[in-house]
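Quick one:
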Amino acid sequence: MSWEPQPDGLSQIITLLKQSQSTDNMVQRAVQLKLEELNQYPDFNNYLIYVLTKLTSEDEPTRSLSGLILKNNIRIHGTELQPAIIEYIKQECLMALGDPSPLIRATAGILITTIANKGGLQNWPELLPTLCDMLDSQDYSVCEGAFGALQKICEDSADVLDSSALNRPLNIMIPKFLQFFRHSSPKIRSNAIACINQFIINRTQALMVHIDTFIENLFHLSSDDDREVRKNVCRGLVMLLDVRMDRLMPHMNSIIEYMLIRTQDSDETSLEACEFWLTLAEQSICKEVLTPHLPRLVPVLVRGMKYSDIDIIILKGDVEEDEMIPDREEDIKPRFHKSRTHTQKPSLGGGASGADGAVRAMEGNDDDEDIDDPYDEMDDDSNLSDWNLRKCSAAALDVLANVFKDDFLPILLPILKETLFHEEWVIKESGILALGAIAEGCMNGMVPHLPELIPYLIVCLSDKKALVRSITCWTLSRYAHWVVSQPHDQYLKPLMKELLKRILDANKRVQEAACSAFATLEEEACTELVPYLGFILDTLVFAFRKYQHKNLLILYDAIGTLADSVGHHLNKPEYISMLMPPLIEKWNNLKDEDKDLFPLLECLSSVATALHSGFLPYSEPVYRRCISLIQQTLNQDLASTTSPGQFEQPDKDFMIVALDLLSGLAEGLDCYIESLVSSSNIMQLLYQCMQDSMPEVRQSSFALLGDLTKACFQHVHPHIADFLPILGHNLNPEYISVCNNATWAIGEISIKLMEDTKPYIPMVLAPLIEIINNTNTPKTLLENTAITIGRLGLVCPVEVAPSLQQFVRQWCSSLRNIRDNEEKDSAFRGMCQMITVNPVGVVPDFIFFCDAAASWMTPKKDLHEMLQKILHGFKMQVGEENWARFVEQFPPQLSERLAVMYSI
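Output:
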């Protein structure tokens, strides 16, 4: 298609492009409006591509900008553009890949990948062959332009490129890329490695066939003069460590030597190389291959942890007092609410766990383990790139300390001595960070040094440099567990006193670090903090008046954690009168659509649970607002589904947080919540929330249903026929936390419904048995499932007992580890009832039952009698001789325990 622009139209567009480079906001806004208006004319996109590719008389920034505006048009309106226009743009872009200007080539490459992403590579079948042919061009610009485009396509579409839908183009592309590893241009060498690197992690077959050639070529380029090439070599080797260790093993010594040098580079290569140590630490061969190199590696990592001059400028390291400067909104990271989950608390018997009530789980919504990376929070500053050499070196030191444990210390201690007490604050700061990084891995070996180090760190909390004070907070939090285990007067009291001063520091970064560290101390110390509550609350309440926006959100966390840690000890009139007024004032000042409600609602939920009836005076307005937040979100959701164009989708986090706070109220107020429930439409709202498409909404709904069942079942009862089928339908372990809360709620409901649970047994029992027998079921879900099956057996033994043999072994194994409590008690009574109805069902797995019965510390008298009766009954049934043979299989500990507890 040949298309020519009208001179008037062209000059109008050039003027617009020039204006859009203006820094004046008014001009920018006018340009935006004009651009949207021009989008009504199909020809507009032809003009834009014409300016980019043909109008060589214009300056490059203007031409490139024209291409970027076109890219956005294609991204947003691509499907509405006429095929002829798209064809014209495609053809022009491919031509422009050989433009003499690197900027224009790069812009054309971005356009090509946008079109390929929008329309799908299968709808542009000639693209990849054309680009591959262009690589062989004698014209350097054409080759480099095509490679730039291919690199972007490999990044965006790695999976698609390996699919049969496209006829597996990688079989041709990968050998082709490998030919360019020895090209004379560093840019092209770098592009070639970057393209292939995209296919390592997925173990793409087309690459695995050529893996030896690839590795050999990487080694050849390892000493390349060009920085980008070396960076891509490091990146490739780090990924290969995960994927093809077998191929790297013969060269491991030289790779480690190489990475040691690269980690000390003065450019970004050092960060890519430093990732190598993090990845190596996860491999089983780490200790064996790294031991000889440790004495050289450890000092390199500690040096990498020092702030660079640039970091200090970005972090305003010379500004000591900034508490009066308001935060910029863009510096405040979005927060994600963690939905409420019913989990088991650790048992007293040694690290196992026992079920009771709802815990606001710190798990991600559907992963059982989701641990925050401490190095993410360390220098939390939006200007400092999220992941840098300092954080990577600290994380590497941490994971290696976990691999080598105390063997690490002979190398590290002399370095720590030198850095910790250095007069240069930057070096001292890196030493304090290193001391924090090894806390987890080297704890045993560090214990003899802590009586000297902890007091030294407490002194460092009042260092004159804010960056030293803030890292000291972090490091002390890593040793909080040890501090709490010592006599209070020695370390806990002085530490608490100094940390509370730092919470009121004049520097915002120090305030933040101190608040986070204090929250960790609260989790470790729990009720040990009760004697100091007045003192702690004084400080936290004072911080309310002092803090800017960002730290206020962290302060809510510290208060919520305090409430979780000391529980009902917070329920004293003098504490309530200190804490509640500032919280309620914030609550009244926040608008319904303000995301700051999330951390405040989470905090109030913990406080309500801890205060019990002490929260009553504040409960009504809080309850009403939660109901209104849920109602608003549901209305918005309905509006956006019925007229998608007119209304945008709501942020369902508002509803989730409100449901969780209602759970906290129900758990805290218990039967006192009855009057609030009776005068609201909470049951209708709950019915809708339980059927929401978003798993987190269902998860929080089921938690609330269980809590309301415990607090005021009279209001839940009339809706059981609607609720139970939904709960049964959600017994799907694909969403672990949803399934967990549904399981727990079924157990709570059955205890209240008693024999009226009978009609619902068929819809819930089979999925529960499937979950308990699934080898992948996480521990928390297993325990909750076992408790619920036990409770169903308690209220409907005749209906559940026939299935006994399908679950009794797994049931006993799951519940032997949880501590004595109400939930375990009701479950075991259910098991005894079922065995009475169907004794044959337990016979093949009776040893497991014996073991579970022995797991009780002090069962209630009547439960003890039931268990004893079953054990003695079994012994009589099989006769002395068989019983003796049976007992021979027991571990000695179990035999002793049964003899002592049940005289058998």
